[in-house]
Description:
eight-stranded mixed beta sheet; four-stranded antiparallel beta sheet; 14 helices; alpha+beta
Amino acid sequence: MLPGGAAEADGAVRRALRAGAAARSKAMPNWGVIGGAAAALAAGLYVLWGPVGGRRRRRRGLVPGLLNLGNTCFMNSLLQGLSSCPSFIKWLEEFTAQYKTDQNPSPEHQYLSLTLLRLLRALSCQEVTEDDVLDASCLLEVLRMYRWQISSFEEQDAHELFHVLTSSLEDERDRQPRVTHLFDVHSLEPEITQKQISCRTRGSLPPVSNHWKSQHPFHGRLTSNMVCKHCEHQSPVRYDTFDSLSLSIPAAVWGRPLTLDHCLLHFISSESVKDVVCDNCTKIQAEGTLKGQSIENQRTTFVKQLKLGKLPQCLCIHLQRLSWSNQGTPLKRHEHVQFNEFLIMDIYKYRIPVHKASQNELNQKNSEETTPGTKDRITVKPSDAEQPSGTKPLFMNGACSSSFLMSPGTFPLAAFPECSSPVYLYRLMAVVVHHGDMHSGHFVTYRRSPPSPKNPLSVSSQWLWISDDTVRKASLQEVLSSSAYLLFYERVHSRAQHQSLELRAEE
């Protein structure tokens, strides 16, 4: 039995405890909702930006890294390489401009071009973001809408993903079969003049639709030329499209370094094709026989030659490092293929044969305007394809030279005076490297740092090494010493070529 005051105090405590319990029981459902929302928000932040505790502001001069979603280093390395190609980003901007004027717009996440553009702009520091690590899972999601099932937890190939992206962009542009326009002569031979076109076609050309001007900057064309060894008759040139040059690595010679030129020359080297019907040989045989006598088709040996009919603005070179053992097991080739910061492709370019009459007119015109052996008052030499056999090639792409290491921002013409005016000159923009073997490994990227906002048209001489979300500065020597898997080059136009492109764009 408690005293009166104590009893009243005890009753007050009991009433307070009962009220607190009731209040807690009423608040429990609300706390569950709040806790679930907080957990969802935390999960969303983790997926988008990675661990919150690991977020940090990007250091000046570096680019954002990309979160590895399991085994997505193949995608991260490719995106970093593409983001270093300004022409590709510019093409995406022009290509996606159509969606801004579309009267019946679809959700933006349905378009690969828009998703890819946002990622590349962020990786090239064209989007305002201070985050150090970005997430590219949106690219896998939009590719699934294009019926590409790419798992983020399985090891994939960066070169295969490159072709997935380019083919999907072409499908987005046009779902119809892609057939080369018969009158698209400019895309086959950009340097040809309108006078030569009119002379060859005996009339003016119909206008080419804008559809054929929307090709992405990695789009190029190969020429396949076959010549009969018996009568030297040349078959019609065949054009095939390509998005990247996949070069096999020739067998190494002891004491001789492998260069990119060796791979390119091996790619376009001629091959003999036996037992091919030659219409010209059959026709010649028929002319020497009696009328009405049956003539069998004459089969001879043809020489097949590959050349580059149209070189793209952005050139992707894939070095095939897969080989097979005698037992049929896949092996990786680890040889170092030497490459340079600058690449000259003139000797690999196919040139349309000029008729003798047209050649005489062209020579006479050149002799009137410039002195022999000059072009636009600059001394030039014939291309390697036009030089006599046995002469030294004009340029070895991949040959070691201290001039390249001393002049990272400009092409060292003083080191190669015979290449004073190359038409197809390319600058290295990014290198994708694969570490490991054929069963497992890791992709990293060397790429140029984006230009400063004060001078967006400039090309930075600072290189970066990127492994998923890790970014650091690198030297040009380190880049050129790497075992390249993918090389991204961008064409460097002279001032005269820039003016010609601007005039063509206005037309």
